[in-house]
Design brief:
alpha+beta, 3 domains, Methyltransferase, Cobalt-precorrin-4 Transmethylase, Domain 2, about 25% helix, about 15% strand, four-stranded mixed β-sheet, about 400 residues
Length: about 400
């Protein structure tokens, strides 16, 4: 989990999928663990982890330090409740995760909540998982439905199966090209990961794909949770999301929108061309869907991704869509644009959000396949942008985000 904020500059502080600020003053004004802390704790633990700052005031999007006059009591009360199974299903925190910070002469409490493992999920409240399990969506804590909770319990069993050593198999049974591709994907996502310093069995051991049972002396590969050919191993606690997981529920057809808005006609697509013509003849309106899965500007939100996804221009707030179209005006106006300039525009569009391939193609008026092959693939290799679905690089609903200095 990366540091998503600056304690030295509160003017830059914004609540995100991994950051929450709470006033935590209590009735006596000396400090108290707020009741809504626990829904955030559950949500962070069941998603990607996050940081809660207790003693920070938020008003109209601006943050200021309120401080906690009795910070040690708040810290003690926090751990007392964490270790009460009637209130919280599991305590994931250690002393190092709850730190007193001093800002502007006042003390606040920084609580770093790690992501729970599959064995530990669901993290729920009040002794009852159904109705008391939460996940983080964008900057809010959302109650999980019954199906999601049951899935977490089922994955506890799968997690135990993953620890079993696969009998009668050794390193020679691993496809070298697949292992090389996996190493490259890991390098692209986390260039400084310590596992990259190792090769062969040592590399597999570092990523949790190989172990030795001290009791029996048996050594080998671990059973995968894959149910079909092509499933990929992932780092423990870092499951790679899939498009199917992210885009649950009814969705607009990829690449389709209303006739009045920008969009390529499939009649004019040609993978060898630099761009495509715009036509309105073949456009249909997207299917109806619930607004509960979209943020205030119409971006799709999912607990499987750290940022919202622009998956349909036609679902966006008019002002937000206009802003994106203004950013992409130059590529639409110039069908021959310098490569460096096109990359700058694409990177700008992908800042602080994921953009699907088809949306990017519509905005810059280029053929999706050509855009991917001529620009996006190279930008991924050079770590200018990142894939939402690294295990499905050519999926039609692939999405991209701009890389940041903290992405290692």
């Amino acid at each position: 989990m990366t540091q998503p904020y600056s304690l030295d500059d509160l003017s830059l502080l914004v609540e995100t999928v991994e950051l929450e600020c709470k006033l935590a003053q209590g009735q006596d004004g000396k400090g108290e663990v707020p009741k809504d802390f626990w829904t955030t704790y559950s949500a962070f633990a069941n998603t990607h982890g996050g940081v809660v700052l207790l003693g920070v005031r938020e008003k109209d999007g601006q943050f200021s330090v309120a401080g906690l006059s009795n910070v040690e009591k708040v810290r003690t009360d926090l751990f007392n409740t964490l270790n009460n199974p009637a209130k919280v299903s599991i305590n994931l925190l250690t002393d190092d995760d709850v730190v007193v910070r001093e800002l502007e002469g006042k003390r606040i409490l920084e609580v770093r909540v790690p992501a729970a493992s599959r064995k530990q999920k669901p993290v729920f409240l009040n002794g009852q998982p159904l109705g008391n399990t939460y996940r983080r969506l964008h900057e809010g804590d959302r109650r999980c439905d019954e199906e999601s909770v049951k899935r977490m319990f089922a994955e506890q069993v799968e997690d135990s199966r993953d620890e079993r050593i696969l009998p009668h198999y050794d390193l020679s049974d691993i496809d070298p090209d697949s292992l090389r591709i996996y190493r490259q994907m890991l390098s692209d996502r986390k260039a400084n990961h310590p596992a990259l310093e190792h090769q062969g069995v040592d590399f597999l051991r570092q990523i949790g794909g190989w172990r030795r049972d001290r009791a029996t002396g048996q050594e080998g590969m671990l059973v995968s949770d894959g149910r079909s050919r092509g499933m990929m191993y992932h780092l423990p606690g870092e499951v790679m999301p899939t498009p199917e997981q992210v885009f649950e529920g009814p969705q607009p057809m990829p690449g389709y929108g209303s006739p009045a808005k920008l969009g390529p006609s499939s009649e004019h697509w040609n993978s060898s061309s630099e761009h495509f013509a715009v036509s309105s003849e073949h456009w249909n309106s997207g299917s109806e869907e619930s607004d509960s899965n979209r943020d205030e500007v119409g971006r799709w939100i999912s607990p499987h991704l750290p940022l919202p996804v622009v998956d349909s221009l036609d679902c966006l707030d008019e002002n937000f869509r206009t802003r994106l179209e203004t950013m992409a005006a130059e590529p639409r106006r110039k069908k021959k644009l310098a490569r460096e300039r096109m990359q700058q525009v694409l990177t700008a569009l992908c800042q602080e959000q994921f953009m699907t391939l088809n949306v990017l193609a519509r905005l810059v008026e280029r053929n999706p396949d050509a855009l991917r092959q001529q620009y996006l693939n190279e930008m991924v290799r050079h770590r200018q942008i990142q894939l939402a679905f690294p295990s499905r690089p050519t999926h039609e609903r692939q999405a991209y985000r701009a890389a940041s200095a903290t992405d290692e």
